[in-house]
Write a structure and sequence with these properties.
With 261 residues, this protein is an all-alpha fold. The protein has helices at 3-29, 33-51, 55-68, 73-85, 89-105, 107-135, 147-165, 180-192, 196-209, 214-226, 230-242, 249-258.
């Protein structure tokens, strides 16, 4: 082989080694199940601290959860809510939009995980049913157990089957957007920045995703009223009242008056 061929061959080997190293590095840099478990624990710790009024501690946990697993939308959503509560509205909008982007970007991933969870549940149901059948006939398993033990084992497996049957098949539509309450808080932040059209659009999205969420109908009633859409405002307020949300009687009377009632 000529010197030039040797150089070419070594160049190809070098590229192959570099590519393999790059793949290994990418795999090492990609968060896995262990990182997600750690991030989930940090998120739960943050929620507990938030309940106790430890906002700095909660924020630190949410930020650390995102550092460990950047594609985790829930702690990003909580950061946005904290900023909203602190009246840091532009920052809240930015944080909530970032949370929305994470949820939308990971929708397919979350759908696949939910589908796997559902399929695993269906397989386990079949296994549990098979075990119950084995317990109902004399054999190597039941020969070592008394009647009470057999009954207890069957009941335990039946309870497990009920738990597994409660896992619904994932819906494609349910994984296309962020949680509905994200849009509720985003709308609130937009309102505080006098961005009414964007607030209204966010609340309408919230309503579409969470049709039984009372608070959003109060907000929609206000937004429709500000836009001169009185009948829509009255309908939204009636829905809020129907769902048990507290309704301002003066505002309700004002809407009725505007509608000529």
């Amino acid at each position: 082989m000529s010197g030039r061929c040797h150089q070419w061959a070594w160049a190809v080997v070098g590229l192959a080694v570099a590519a393999a190293v790059a793949v290994d590095a990418a795999r090492a840099a990609t968060p896995g199940r262990r990182e997600l478990t750690r991030a989930e624990q940090l998120y739960q710790d943050g929620l507990e601290k938030e309940k106790k009024g430890d906002v700095p501690g909660a924020r630190a946990d949410f930020l650390e959860a995102l550092r460990v697993y950047p594609d985790y939308g829930a702690p990003q959503l909580e950061l946005g809510k904290l900023l909203l509560a602190e009246k840091r509205f532009p920052e809240a909008i930015e944080a909530l939009k970032k949370a929305e982007a994470i949820f939308v970007r990971t929708a397919d991933q979350r759908h696949k995980a939910a589908m796997k969870n559902y399929q695993d549940a269906q397989r386990e149901i079949v296994q549990q049913q098979e075990q119950i059948r084995n317990l109902q006939i004399p054999g190597p398993i039941t020969n070592k157990m008394n009647e009470t033990q057999v009954t207890t084992e069957i009941n335990t497996r039946q309870d497990r089957i009920k738990q597994l049957q409660a896992i619904p098949p994932p819906s494609e539509r349910g994984y296309q957007k962020a949680p509905g309450d994200l849009y509720f808080f985003l709308g609130n932040a937009y309102l505080r920045e006098d961005r009414m059209d964007e607030a209204l659009a966010a609340w309408e999205t919230c309503r579409d995703l969470m049709p039984d969420f009372p608070a959003v109908y109060n907000n929609l009633a206000f937004a429709y009223w500000k836009r001169g859409r009185v009948e829509e405002a009255r309908t939204a307020l009636a829905r809020a009242e129907e769902l048990g949300a507290p309704v301002n009687p003066e505002f309700k009377a004002k809407l009725d008056q505007a509608a000529g009632r």
